[in-house]
Amino acid sequence: TVHFLFCYTFLRDPYERVVSTYGHVFKSESLLALFAHYGRTEERLTMSDSKEIWQKFPHVMPTPQSFTFERFVEIITNELWNIMWEPQTSWIYNDNKEEIVNFIGRTETLQQDLDKIRKMLNIEEEIKVPHLNVTDWAGVDFDYKDVYDESTKKKVEKYYEKDIEYLKVKF
User: Fold this and answer.
1) CB atoms closer than 10 angstroms to residue 39
2) Which of 2, 39, 103, 163 is deepest in the core (most CB within 10 A)?
3) How far is Cα 133 from Cα 54, in angstroms, rounded to an integer?
4) What pLDDT is recorded for position 88?
5) pTM exceeds 0.90
6) Can you give the pLDDT at residue 150?
7) Phi/psi of residue 103, each to 5°?
8) In 6-149, where do the E strands start and end?
């Protein structure tokens, strides 16, 4: 018997992803604690340490005023690795630099790409995906590009160079 495994993934515009992740920091106790404690100790922190940190140091939790986008970009591109901001293309290739997925969709075209997958797999039932987990910037509608300055843009371009190239993203 031959079994067929269909692997797919969805990638996101790295510039949008970084802004969204920065916004997510302020919604997540564990990320807030991670960044509050970061640089204050020689210890290597894990996300599981964060609840304890949150309870011990509630007064040092970052705010958008005290923890700027510029500082966030510096940390994620040069100082601290986390799977949340790992370049996405690192997950789609094997050690021989061969693509290991059958289909790569984009979060920007999620519904259309899911429809393509459904057709490829001969799935007749429609799959509708609601738009959840939207970053709310105090009810303000804005262009993510407005968050960047030249320095943050260059750091993100360097760190996510393979993602940007693969996705053919233009800032």
Assistant:
1) 10
2) 163
3) 23
4) 94
5) no
6) 97
7) -150, 135
8) 8-11, 103-106
